Amino acid sequence: MIENVSSLVAALKARAAAGKPVTIGIIGVGQMGTDLIVQLNRMPGIRLGAIAVRNIANAIDVAIENGYRRDMVVEAKSPSHIDSAIEGGLLPITGDIATLAAAGRIEVLIDATGNPNTGTLIALEAIRNGKHIVMMNVEADITIGRYLHTEARSAGVVYTGAAGDEPAAAIELISFAQSLGLDIVCAGKGKNNPLKFDAVPADYEVEARARNMNPRMLVEFVDGSKTMVEMVAIANATGLIPDRPGMHGPAAPRENLSDILIPSKDGGVLSGKRRVDYSTGKGVAPGVFCVVESDHPRIVERMADLKVGKGPYFTLFRPYHLTSLEAPLSAARAVLYGTADMIPLDRPVAEAIAVAKRDLKVGETLGKIGETEYRAWAVTYEQGQTESALPLGLAEGAKVIKPINSGSYLTYQNCTPDQSLLVTQIRHRLDKADRRLLAAE
């Protein structure tokens, strides 16, 4: 028998022994949600309590395909029904987020939807019902995460990004470096797919089927949108900033990150330190990195001696991120310790804005991220405000009111976001408050 090697493992096994596993509700059964259905039943002291989805019949099929007998899966229409099903060892599925959030047996929710407005509704329902919330929905987090975190803090619950996603994995390295007193030069990730800014779903249907993915979701990765979103999430949780619009994204192989993602005065591409960026170079993806330095020659000597690099800059590297397989750890830490793995700053430093993939005509209503109309682009928050740029999280459902050329920014002058969406309304209030603060300063 292997002894418990961490307090988390010990605490989870204690919950299991007591018959009180951390009970998690998930929203969404796409690729990430399906992974969670499987993973939550394989971790000590953790269980899948219930699922909320639009298409209940589809969710039942997914549950059966992934280990549940048909007689174990029930449709639940009330919080009490969810609770009684959990107590009876069944898996309840509901079509209503509020019903899931109100169930007493559910301790924490994981949002696996990826839609900014849906993520907003999920987080606020969780908070309203005294539940912790784990956001695999980075798109919502970069749009209004600071508001959601403030609401959670006021309610005494945890709002957190998800372990296993690249932002939280990179923040592990940043935290480690800070705890050692090292200075952060640049942090980021390796891009997982070849970069093609004008990618559209029609060109990726075959590859998507082979990878068991939705073509639109695959295009989110290929056209750079996911990378931009993730780097902005890191920025707004740490204070690191994009060095220039869109960042550099050099083809820096793993062994050369500390030669390239450093200031230009030392032979690199950056204009300064404390930046976020990504690499398309060999051996970096699917990992994350943090380039660091020390101002003491003894520390530099020791790190070089320990084969971290030759100095004066060094790369700390994590060669993997396990996405949905790790996400339950954030839920466990929220419940057991009341801690978050990643939270946004009260004031953002970066923004993911929308850029036209093609010429857009007046009257067009924009679709989802990863379709044909727009892609994400990382800029500093100040630049986004100066340009009156449309945040990526408000692009879906926006209407084009002036012609937009391919490659141009979507702005509040040429696009009108959907004012009926709660995420739009909250973001407008945040922007208004920011303008007042800036004026006062």
List keywords for this structure.
five-stranded mixed β-sheet; alpha/beta; 441 residues; globular; seven-stranded parallel β-sheet; 16 strands
The total strand number stands at: 16
What share of the residues does DSSP label as strand, in percent?
15-25%
Number of helices: 16
Major sheet: size, sense and barrel closure?
7 strands, parallel
Mean pLDDT: 95
- Broad shape: globular
Unreliable parts: none
Structural class: alpha/beta
User: Termini, distance in Å?
Assistant: 61 Å
Give the strand order, joined by hyphens, for the main sheet. 3-4-2-1-5-6-7
> How helical, in percent, are the residues?
25-40%
Structure characterization notes:
With 441 residues, the protein is of the alpha/beta class. The protein is 39% helix and 17% strand. It has 16 helices and 16 strands. The strands form 4 sheets. It has a 7-stranded parallel β-sheet, with helices on both faces. Helix 7 packs parallel to helix 11 (225-238) and helix 7 (138-155) crosses helix 16. The longest helix is centred in the last third of the chain and has 19 residues, at 422-440. The protein is globular and about 65 Å long. The model has no long low-confidence stretch (mean pLDDT 95).
